[in-house]
User: Fold this.
Amino acid sequence: MDKNEPSLPNRRLRVLFATSELFPLAKTGGLGDVAAALPAALGALGVDARAILPGYISALDSARGKRLLRRLPEGGALLLAYTPDTGLPVYLVDRPDLFRRAGGPYQDATKQDWPDNLRRFAGFSAVVAALALGGDGASEGDFQPDLVHANDWHTGLVMAYLALADGPRPASLFTIHNLAYQGNFPLAEARALGLPEALFATGGAEFYGQLSCLKAGIVYADRITTVSPTYAREILTPEHGAGLHGVLRARAADLIGIRNGIDARAWNPAEDPALAFSYDAARLSGKALNKAALRHELGLDAAASGPLVIGVNRLTHQKMADIVLAALPGLLAAGAQVVLHGQGDQDLEAALRAASAGREGQLVVRIGYEEAFAHRLHAAADLALTPARFEPCGLTTLYAMRYGALPVTRPVGGIADSVVDLEAGGGQGTGFAFSDPTVEALVGAIARARRLFADEPAWRAVQRRVMGQDFGWAEPARRYLGLYCALLPEAARSGLPCCAGDADSRDASAAVAAPVAAHACEEREAA
Assistant:
């Protein structure tokens, strides 16, 4: 849509949500959950939000009501379909040469990155931009977005394609879910794909002699968000900026931290179909029954008196899987039962499997990720290990608290925005936080947790407090809506009913943005 062209009166704001994952069609981490829940929450606010996703085999198999919109010039087709759970409209970019292959979205079955990932996601980004710009009959059913919301490096080139296009274009927003994953590729490989020459300049997407898809998103988007206020400030520093802190500081006035929400419908112990027994904060007896059921399922000692500790996380250095591995002997010697579920670095996977040998009644390690099993783990757990060396948001921590599993974690990034340490919280604590990324600090936090666990009335009181928090999408979606509306010219948003009351949302977003910009100024002055 032309940003200078008045919109038709009384129509819905149109947002195209570009993502490489969307649950239940494709998921490797939190992005998949966000891509499913945020558009749905925006729909409840009156937004016509539609997603666009690569046509992976899993997506083509799971999506409902698929129909052909048009053939793509490069081969394949653009399809319109719907998610099987919520009916969210999703465009599928069905390029068999790029996406119909066994393995995951980014890696093959041996966990090696697909060697043509740049070609795959540059091709996907080009289709997203064509749909957004309305070219080649791409705007199905008169859906031409007012704004494109792109996510992480896989869609960073969408922002560049839009910014460098001739003529009218929609507004653009780019969300960084994890700055550590940047989509960096050799410049020669990028040039061979015929990408716009402007990208190869230092002020474009060039990054230390490579092309960075993430940097493209940061440089070319109208506005940038990340997934928590604290992480927005942290990534402006050399410690957490992953080499891009200078680029981000240059755009600090356009950088906003909005904490992710969780899908309170999908993550609801009172109505979760994956659980053996339903429960809520007022009926915690059901949680004890889920704990007994999980112990039976996994062969854990049913008579153990210590807490059941889970870890549902990627097994990586970021998530401190190495520290958890080293801490296991101490945790088990103290009487805890531990269940770890996730995947990641192959060396850590192998080491954790080896650690579980001969400890079947006390330690279970299940490599991979199963959605229903993750729900059962949270429902059964007393404690959830969610430590990280850095953490953009920490959705797993929010899921754990929603299910009454108290987090053992570090106050970094989004976790600092959502967990209050029980010793420092003045009676409002919600978890056990430790500062140093060491085995000793983790074991010390577990020891504090065990002392509270021994006091059942006090433990139950904290569980109820934790479960009573609102981590849903209503407030984050309202902030995103305010940001969307602020990015449109007055003439355009005046005809959009959902933007009519956006002043509070814009003020809320500005309140988050202000300390980010101020922090950038402090950094420059200190330098």
